[in-house]
Design a protein that fits this description.
Pfam families: BPD_transp_1. Keywords: Cell inner membrane, Cell membrane, Membrane, Transmembrane, Transmembrane helix, Transport. It is found in: Cell inner membrane; Cell membrane. It is a multi-pass membrane protein. It is built from 11 helices and no strands. It is mainly alpha-helical. 81% of the residues lie in helices and 0% in strands. It has one domain: MetI-like (MetI-like fold, Orthogonal Bundle). The longest helix has 53 residues.
Length: 254
C-alpha cells in the first residue's frame, strides 16, 4: 500500500466531497420537510389520510434506492408528456434526478421514524394539553412534535448517516460525487486500493462530524429536559410542603 498516494489523492477528491455534502444536505432538508406533515397524517385515524402515506412509505422502503434512482433518471425520459413539459428541464439533469430520488426515499424512512416518536409521546401529556384547552394544531406544535423529535433523534441520526452512504449511488447516473470521482481517478492511476481508501477516509470523516453534531444536540435536549424536570420537582415539593404544613392554633383559614 502506497501511503503517499493516499495522501496525494485526498485533495483530488475535494470536489466530489463537496458535491456529496451538497447532495446529502439538500436531500435531508427536503426529506424532513416532506416527512413532517406525512408523519402526522400517518398517525391519523382517518383512513383517507393515513392509507396514502402508508402506501408511499411501503413502496419507497420496500424497493431499492438504486431502482428508484434509475426510474427517475431513465424512466422519466420515456414518458412523452414529461419530455414536452417544463419538468423535463429538471428531469434531464442527473443532479436533480438524484435529489428527487434521495429526498423521496429519505422522506419515507423519516416519516416512519417520526411516526414512532409521535406514538411514543406519553398519553398523559396529550391529555393534559387537551385539558388546558389547546387546539390540535397548538398541542401538536407545543407538546407532541417537540417530544416526538426528541424521542426519534437517535434513529434519525442513523438515517442521516445511511443517506450519506447512499449518496454514492449517484455515481451510477454520471454524477461525479465522491465515489464517482474516486472511480475516475482509479481509471487514471490504476490504483483502486489507495484511491478507495482515501474516499473511505473522507466518508468516515463526514460521518464523524454528523455523529458528533447529533450527539451534542441529544445532550443539549437531555439537559433541557433534566432542568425542566428538576424545576417541576422543586415546585411539587414546595406545594407538598405547603399542604402538609401544620396549622397553628387560633389561625384563621383562608
Amino acid at each position: 500500500m502506497n501511503l503517499s498516494l493516499i495522501l496525494d489523492v485526498l485533495p483530488l477528491l475535494a470536489d466530489g466531497m463537496i458535491l456529496t455534502a451538497k447532495l446529502t444536505t439538500v436531500s435531508i432538508i427536503l426529506g424532513a420537510f416532506i416527512a413532517l406533515p406525512l408523519s402526522l397524517m400517518r398517525t391519523s385515524s382517518t383512513v383517507f389520510l393515513f392509507v396514502p402515506v402508508l402506501v408511499y412509505t411501503f413502496v419507497f422502503r420496500g424497493t431499492p434506492l438504486l431502482v428508484q434512482l434509475f426510474l427517475v433518471y431513465y424512466g422519466a425520459g420515456q414518458i412523452d408528456w414529461i419530455r414536452s413539459s417544463a419538468a423535463w428541464v429538471i428531469l434531464r439533469e442527473p443532479f436533480w434526478c438524484a435529489l428527487i430520488a434521495f429526498s423521496l426515499n429519505h422522506a419515507a424512512y423519516t416519516t416512519e421514524i417520526l411516526r414512532g416518536g409521535i406514538r411514543a409521546v406519553p398519553f398523559g401529556d396529550v391529555e393534559a394539553a387537551k385539558a388546558l384547552g389547546m387546539s390540535y394544531a397548538l398541542r401538536t406544535r407545543r407538546v407532541v412534535l417537540p417530544a416526538a423529535i426528541r424521542l426519534a433523534l437517535p434513529a434519525y441520526a442513523n438515517e442521516v448517516v445511511l443517506m450519506l452512504k447512499a449518496s454514492s449511488l449517484a455515481s451510477t447516473i454520471t454524477l461525479m460525487e465522491l465515489t464517482g470521482s474516486a472511480r475516475k481517478i482509479v481509471a487514471q492511476t490504476f490504483s483502486p486500493y489507495e484511491v478507495f481508501i482515501s474516499a473511505a477516509l473522507i466518508y468516515l470523516g463526514i460521518t464523524l462530524v454528523i455523529s458528533h453534531v447529533f450527539a451534542k444536540f441529544e445532550r443539549h435536549l437531555a439537559k433541557h429536559q433534566q432542568r425542566n424536570s428538576q424545576t417541576g420537582n422543586s415546585r411539587l415539593a414546595e406545594m407538598t410542603a405547603t399542604i402538609r404544613r401544620p396549622r397553628l392554633p387560633g389561625s384563621v383559614s383562608r
